[in-house]
User: Fold this.
Amino acid sequence: MKQVSDDMRYAKSFKEQLTLRSMIIGAIGAIIITTSSMYVALRMGALPWPTIFVAVMSMTILKAMKDTNLNEINVTHTAMSAGGMVAGGLAFTIPGIWMLDKGAEVSFISLLVVTLSGTILGVIFTALIRKYFIEGEKLPFPMGIAASETVLAGDEGGDKAKTLFSTLGITAVFTAIRDGFGKIPGAWLSTKLAAKNIFFGLWVSPMAVGIGYLIGPLFTGVWFLGAVISYFFIIPVGVSAGWFADVEVATAFKDSLGIGLMVGTGIGILVKGILPKAKEIYGPMVSGKAAREGGVNMKWVPMLFVVVAFLLTVFTNMGFVASVLTIVGVWLTTAMAASITGQTGINPMEIFGIIVLLVVKGVTKIGGVEAFLVAGVVAVASGLAGDVLNDFKAGYILKTDPKAQLIAETIGGIIGSVVSVIVMFVMFKAYGEMGPGTELPAPQAYAVSTMVGGLPNSGAFIGGLVIGLVLYLLNIPGMTLGIGIYLPMFISTTAFIGGLIHLIVKKIKPEALEKGTIISSGLLGGEGVTGVIIAIIQVLTMA
Assistant:
């Protein structure tokens, strides 16, 4: 990764980074991204990263308006992208309520409180953990790298820009043919191996290859190892040896194991990475002095926690204890989201929601609907934290003031909170129902609905938790291993190919590594931009 040279067009002051026009453009973009993200999450069970799309859109608009700079563009696209993950957190959890009870009544106010609470917590914890994950751990955050490369290429021009935008264009055409016209399959699965309960395949996704290249061979190797353990050992061997009654039971075991690994790693992050630095991270909160890193005055943080607890207790009927546990859960899961997004470019926000709702259900007598609301708060906060840290990664490379980005994140998140709830209710009324076999399958929310009754295999979860904690303490990326165990193998395989290409280039032609980064950024950008455009078209043409 190449750092920005000093002769680049930087902002000369804070006022040139956070401008009135950047917030107006960011706000309008947040409305568009939130609307399209809610639709695509419910309709297609996916959520394309908006990071590159909003970077290109911000750059295009601001350059047309003249007298812009790299940092103003970065701040603008931070505001735009925040709303998308708020919509994702809501779409990946709340529809499960109606899947279990089609007549269930959920008020607009309670869902608005869920999204606003998740946004407030997401902003707070992003501010607290930004320095650790961006500057300390220096995780790849592949979408952030790609966004910075896109903005730099647009500023510099020359061969770098030609390489990036030509790759982006070719990938965009490919994605349109695949998703818009359905002429290319989205994935390939070996039917011969599937007959033997080995579900090996490839995700036909340039973006996945680009992510694999950017995060490198170590993380993709561990990620792929997790998939191999699941799909070449746990499921086929477990079923044939009689350890599991069938593939469904084996899958439940490996899912619980993967979730446990992620939870265990999250605990490890707290024990090893956060708590030892508690004075450094949380000291400003106690002393009342403005935090030098993170861009907010931490003396307001305890008051904001009280406000969130009050809102959740009064307007969602989840109770005070459940509200407090939810806030504590977000503290854990935002760190987990930061770690896994930084390593893999994937943010399983609904899994984090499941984890916390199971804990809350085990400790309190919370009702079914309220359990989904807990998951919604956690998913919104975790999704927002994971997404915006990509923007902060780009900001770190572009030398943007974190305070400017944090303000932009807050504005985009609040707009996303309101818009996402409105769009969800509109779509629910338009289609009448959600879940498998309907126009709005919302598969992630369906997974949450199946977990409200408890983990499929608690023993595997506990075992994975212990293993994940131990691995993290040994500096082994257990969360990446867990995501490989949990996700379908075809995703892991394609990402591993990208990591393998990175390794080969490094060994054979190391001077070409930077060009590979630019090409990979184009792969991410082409698929990401086209995915969002297709989603917007579908929203506009929705019957």
Remarks:
- Strands lie at 187-189, 201-203.
- The longest strand covers residues 187-189.
- The radius of gyration is 22 Å.
- The chain is about 75% helix and 0% strand.
